[in-house]
Amino acid sequence: MRLSDKVVIVTGAGSGMGRAIAELFAKEGAKVVASDISEERINEVSTSIKEAGGEALGILANVAKESDVQQLIDRTVQAYGTVDILVNNAGIMDNFIPVGEVTHEHWERVLGVNLNGPMYASRAVLKIMLEKGKGVIINNASVGGLFGARGGAAYVASKHALIGLTKNTAAVYGSKGIRTNAIAPGGVNTAISGTITAPNQLGMEAIGRAGSAPMGEAQEIAYAALFLASDESSFVNGVVLTADGGWTAH
Q1: Is 155 a catalytic residue?
Q2: Could you confirm whether the keyword Oxidoreductase appears in this record (predicted)?
Q3: Quick check: 208 pLDDT over 70?
């Protein structure tokens, strides 16, 4: 198994890509700490992993709150002694609202989850990884972090910034044995679409001009994450792995 005895934290693990990553990593031998904002979903994924013979610990956390993230890291260390792999997966959409119409509250909410959360978690685990001289951080970004018309202003800005954070972390800490990479999924059948409640017409028109996105499955993104987490990608650091079925190749 590729991740035998590795301690992995997956945020947003209650559904979609996060759940697929948590279950696949457990299948590959990891001790998985599944974090989510929904206690019900945490219990579901933890139970699923245990019933399949894996090891899991569910921890309730809102990644936009630094205190929640620190508690997540602390409880993981209390339970398993360390953190080997961090998967910053938690994220929300933004109703495709353009900058001319975005509210301060909306902007802060999206960046709080999509950017601040990964920063809080990365900052906390780096202290642990630096002591060990090794570790892996995977940020689930988006093709919205590579192109302008794949979301609203807040979402696109947050994902561009997350990719910047990924590259900076890789450049600074790569020499310390810590690899940091990002995945940029395109259209994926997940519950994140449920965070789109009232799509903005102007924003939707811009996305429409980008063409229709092929839809992938969460499991396909999980396998991309597994590659980046495993020793098979030992020489891969600071990359953005696009997984979009060719959407952005057109």
Answers
A1: yes
A2: yes
A3: no
Average pLDDT for residues 161-187, to the nearest whole number? 97
Could you list the beta-strand ranges (E) of the chain.
7-10, 31-36, 55-60, 85-88, 135-140, 178-185, 187-188, 215-216, 240-243
Q: Would the pLDDT of 100 be above 80?
A: yes
Amino acid (one-letter) located at 188: V
Average pLDDT over residues 89-109: 95
Q: Give pLDDT tens digits for 23-73.
A: 999 999 999 999 999 999 999 999 999 999 999 999 999 999 999 999 999
- In 2-104, where do the E strands start and end? 7-10, 31-36, 55-60, 85-88
| Residue in the block written with tokens 């450049």 | 171
Question: Is pLDDT of 177 > 80?
Answer: yes
Amino acid making up residue 233: S
Pair type for strands 85-88 and 55-60: unpaired
Tokens representing residue 83 in the block: 């953190």
* Residue-level pLDDT at 195: 63
| Active-site entry in 80, 120, 155, 173 | 155
Q: What is the Cα 113 distance to its own chain's centre?
A: 10
The secondary structure element, H or E, covering residue 159 is: helix 153-173
Say if CB 70 and CB 82 are below 8 A apart.
no
Residues 6+ apart with CB under 8 A from 243: 183, 184, 185, 186, 216, 220, 221, 224
- What domains does the chain contain, in order, with CATH numbers? 7-242 (3.40.50.720)
